[in-house]
Design goal:
single chain, mainly alpha, Rhopdopsin 7-helix transmembrane proteins, elongated, GPCR_Rhodpsn_7TM
Length: about 280
């Protein structure tokens, strides 16, 4: 391999062209073109960015509307809507803070941000995921209580539950930021091998990381969905027997059935969309 130095300054000055193996490089400009080609998203990645960008815009607008409507209308601030607003805030954190950085990292294959971002992005992402699933559990519990014990008043304060959800979510997400750090990354390209850039990775072993992801999947996915499924089945059973009771208004039963079906649909959509992510994290 041959290379000559150029007097022009560049943002790639920290990278040594001699690290490239099996590629003819005449000037620093050629080396920079190689790096730019490696960083620029290919056709598949461009569609990936477009699809995620569209989803991000739709998600931000939808969740922001939920937050604005609930927070500005006192009549809307019941227990269910407050938890839904809490769920929307968690989604906004992922969409605005975590998703853009994750897309840049996945497309360019290197982490461009500081060590603070390395620790905080994963922490905020995991916290928001825990908040989302625990909010769904709380909503399901509230619907179950309203259907199973309709004459009993709520026994908890919604705002206290929301605060508890965030504290518990932050506690469950705390191990990863402690061990995350920036490390040099080695990338293998089709026609050459080079070493440049950084990655945000854990300092513990791969075996420990797999076990950690497995535990995280159990607490943030399997157990909550198990609880929700049991409660949904019990609600369906209760409503089925209530429909045979002539003392219960049929219109009220119909409204409750629609609410349960909608809740089960939201939970199923959440499970389907998150299952591949958890399987990928365990396999990775």
């Amino acid at each position: 391999m041959t290379s000559t130095n150029s007097s022009s300054s560049s943002e790639f000055d920290d990278y040594d062209p001699s690290q490239i193996i099996g590629l003819q490089v005449e000037t620093n400009e050629q080396y920079e073109d190689i790096i730019a080609d490696a960083l620029w998203p290919n056709a598949v990645e461009q569609w990936f960015v477009i699809i995620l960008g569209t989803m991000m815009v739709i998600g931000v607008v939808g969740n922001a509307l939920v937050v604005v409507v609930v927070s500005t209308n006192k009549s809307m601030r019941n227990a269910l809507n407050l938890v839904l607003m809490n769920l929307a805030i968690a989604d906004l954190l992922i969409l605005l803070f975590c998703l853009p950085l994750t897309v840049v990292n996945d497309v360019t294959k290197t982490f461009w941000f500081s060590a603070v971002f390395c620790k905080s992005v994963n922490f905020i992402n995991n916290t928001s995921v825990y908040v989302s699933i625990m909010s769904l559990v709380f909503i399901t519990c509230e619907r179950w209580r309203a259907i199973t014990y309709p004459l009993k008043s709520p026994f908890v304060r919604t705002r206290s539950v929301i605060a508890g959800i965030w504290l518990l979510a932050m506690f469950l997400s705390s191990p990863e930021p402690v061990t995350l750090h920036l490390a040099g990354a080695r990338f293998v390209r089709p026609n050459f091998t080079t070493q440049w850039g950084t990655r945000c990775k854990e300092s513990w072993s791969e075996e420990f990381q797999m076990n950690y992801q497995l535990v995280q999947t159990i607490f943030s996915f399997v157990l909550p969905l198990l609880v929700i499924s049991v409660l949904c089945l019990h609600m369906v059973r209760t409503l089925h027997f209530s429909s045979n009771n002539l003392t219960v208004a049929s219109r009220q039963i119909s409204i409750r059935k629609k609410a349960v079906r909608m809740l089960c649909g939201v939970v199923m959509l959440f499970a389907i969309s998150n299952l591949p992510v958890h399987l990928y994290n365990i396999a990775l």
